[in-house]
Structure formats: structure tokens, C-alpha cells
Amino acid sequence: MRAHAKVLLAPSLLLPVLLSACDRGGEEAAPPAAEQTSGEARSALDAPPAIPVMGPERPILAFGDSLLAGYGLEDGESYPDRLEQALRARGVNARIANAGVSGDTTAAGLERLDFTLKSQTPKPELAIVSLGGNDMLRSLPPAETRRNLEEILKRLKGDNIRVLLLGMMAAPNLGKDYSAKFNPIYPQLAQEYGATLVPFFLQPVIDKPDLMQQDHVHPTALGIDAIVTATVDDVVAALPKREAAATGATPAGTPRPH
């Protein structure tokens, strides 16, 4: 069953401009990940667990927009679904609740955060936050985006929930001034609130049209697998140590170097 929720990302805008954003000084684009095809990535995710799933359940909350909701994908193909499988293949007894809502801005996310957290039993050990893309595509003020994201991170930290922050990049056609204000939001907030940072969530697929849906905005199922392969280590690093999780303590996180 496909997701048909309204999406606010602009198909004609995102792919070309973010391709430009990923271009570094006119350098030739890197070849596809040492020819590790997305089919190979999916095979790796589908393989039987190399490590038996062990230990208590690790509840994780995926909180964001259509990139987490699984827009245009079949059931079981969203990023949270495939990430859970990848974590379990590593022996992590993960259970990921998908609280992605297509079209959400940071303001909409902040508005529903309290309700979402109250609905989670048990409390998540980790929140994966992916918001801001719709703010950028609507040209909303970066200061507003930053303020909303900061409130979200502040609330999660106050509840002793660690955070993996999935970054977004501003489209170059919005201008250098907008990019200069928008792009630093994610690394700065990750540093300030001790979140683990993925600098640009779409990096593994943005220059590979075959891994994007026809709207040129959302990854295909194979694109999701490529993103999972690129980010699963960040998720493992962001999870609290099992001893800390057992006591309810949440040590401050440190952004992973990239």
C-alpha cells in the first residue's frame, strides 16, 4: 500500500539545485561508492543476521517529514523500516517508531512533539530528527527554522533522549545569504545539544537519478537502502551505551566527525 499523504517538497526544484550544492568547486563527481550498487546494499540489508539479536529492546523514534514517512514507497520500505532491519542484522534489538509526516515543517514538528513523545511507550532511547527541508523549499526564514529545531532538541535533551540529527542543505538558487544562514543550523545545533550529526541526509542519492523517484525529490526503495548503508554506523554511535540505557541515564552525545 503506497503512501499518498500530501507532500510539499518541490519536485522541479530540489534535484538540480542540490546537485549544484554537492558540486565542490567544479570537481568531477565521485563514482558511485566504489560501484557498490544499491542492489548490493539491499542484498546486504536482506541477508540473515550475522550477529544474533541480543539484549533488551532499544526503542527509537523517527521524527520528521516525508523523507522518514516513506512517501511513495511500499509498506516496509521506508527509512525507519529498513534501518530497523539493518540494526537487527548487527545484533541490535531495535524497534523504530515511524513518526514521519509528509509536508511537515519544523514548526509543525514542534507543534506535535509533545503529543508524539507522550504516545511512546517505553520512552525512546534515541530520536532521529529529519526536519527543515520543507522550511527551506518554502524559503522560510532560517532563524525560524533554527528556533524551532532548537526547541525540539532542547525538549528531547530535557527528556534524556539522545538525538541523531539529519541535516539538509539549502538550494543554491535561494542565494548565498540564505545558504550562509541555513546550512550552519544543523552542525551548530548538533554541537550545542550534543547530537550526533549526519551533515546531509540525501548525500548518497542526490546525484544518482536512478535512486530517486520520478518527482526527483524522494528516494526510491533502493535509494533508501543506500542511505541506510551510509548512516547505520551513525545510528549505532548515537545509541546510548546499554549500561546507561538500563539505568535511564543519557550521557551527552558527541557529533561524529565527517
Automatic annotation (TrEMBL):
Name listed for the protein in its UniProt record: SGNH hydrolase-type esterase domain-containing protein
Q: Where is the SGNH hydrolase-type esterase domain?
A: 62-223
Going by the UniProt record, its keywords in alphabetical order are: Signal
Region annotation (Disordered) maps to 26-50
* KW tRNA processing (keyword) present: no
Q: Name one GO molecular function term.
A: phosphatidylcholine lysophospholipase activity
Q: Which SUPFAM superfamilies match?
A: SGNH hydrolase
Record's signal peptide = 1-21
Under the heading PROSITE patterns, the entry gives: PROKAR_LIPOPROTEIN
Alphabetical list of InterPro entries matching this protein:
Ester_Hydrolysis_Enzymes, SGNH_hydro, SGNH_hydro_sf
The yes or no answer to whether the keyword Signal is present is yes
